[in-house]
Amino acid sequence: YYICMALDLGEMSLFIALIFSIASTWGSYYYSDKIVLSLNKARPATKEENQKLVNILEALVVSSGVSTTPRLYVVEDAQPNAFATGRNPENAVICVTTGLLEKLDYYELEGVIAHELAHIKNYDIRLSAVVTVMVGLVVMLADLCSRAMLYGGGRDSDNNKGNAIVMLIGAVLLLLSPIFSKLMQLAVSRRREFLADATAVEFTRNPDGLISALQKLDADSHKLETANSSTAHMYIANPFKKKEKGLKKLADWFSTHPSVEARVEALRNIK
User: Fold this and answer.
1) In Å, how far are 160, 200, 237 from 108, measured between CA atoms?
2) In a 10 Å sphere around its CB, with 0-12 CB exposed, 13-18 middle and 19+ buried, how is residue 195 labelled?
């Protein structure tokens, strides 16, 4: 939308942006698993190589009531982490890193897989797509309203003062609306992590396994080489190892994940 405005395409900008938004959302919805797996250079897991992982998933599928077993993929990376993708349980994928398989014991690995299976059962990928589209819509509407106030004001000089105030309010809203929209998107993402943790405990009946796994993931110092800002929210733990000091509360607002301390406390409250 902003590229079109920069090219001075006028009213066509919104139409072009909407077409692009619909096409990109449709493509990411139907091909999200292939896109994300390609970005992360994932390979299919095999029974011969990953028997323990396959056994854990099959048992969890039974206990969760999910109708279709998700496909399993592995990423060659030292950081222990995992994510789920796919538009619904019938087209779902769970992907883990080799670091996760090497560093977690059976019950910790079970907790992580249960968390990812919970995302699938709760349709979190679909919700994420809807929220992303809504955030983009808010930004475009804010810009349209500010332009309408700027160029559509009355020509009567007596109204100039009133128009200036309205324009000022519009400018403030234009600046703040993308920030508030992004905060809303991040808040939804964090709440779904709490929900996935709680759902995972329903599957395993063992909060200690997930608690221990989260603490190990948080303590690990390796960087996930394939991670990027567009897929960071998908992982069970933030793949970017940033230890914020000082403005921790502000950092939490702009994080895709709740802190491990908050998640562990919530899991202990379940116990």
Assistant:
1) 66, 12, 14
2) middle
Phi, psi angle pair for 92, to nearest 5°: -105, 155
φ, ψ of residue 97 to 5 degrees: the values are: -90, 160
Active-site entry in 49, 76, 108, 116: 116
Phi then psi for residue 246, to 5 deg, are 95, -95
Contact 143, 136 (CB under 8 A): no
Q: Which residues contact 209 (CB under 8 A, 6 or more apart)?
A: 107, 108, 110, 111
Whole-model pTM: value is: 0.76
Kindly state the helix (H) or strand (E) to which residue 93 belongs, with its residue range: strand 93-97
Note whether 264 and 217 are within 8 A (CB): no
Which tokens sit at 7? 């090219």
* 206-258 pLDDT, tens digit each: 999 999 999 999 999 888 877 766 677 788 988 886 554 444 555 555 576 78
DSSP H helical ranges for 40-90: 51-64
The pLDDT, as a whole number, for residue 11 is 77
Q: Answer yes or no: is pLDDT of 187 > 80.
A: no
Contact 260, 188 (CB under 8 A): no
User: How far is it between the farthest Cα atoms of the chain?
Assistant: 81
The answer to whether residue 116 is catalytic is yes
Q: What is the pLDDT of residues 157-184, one digit of tens each?
A: 555 555 566 566 666 766 766 676 666 6
Residues in the chain: 271
Query: Which SS3 state, helix, strand or coil, does residue 235 take?
Result: strand
Among 37, 154, 136, which residue's Cα sits nearest to residue 96?
Answer: 37
Task: Give the Cα-Cα-Cα angle 65, 34, 178 (nearest 5 degrees).
Answer: 90
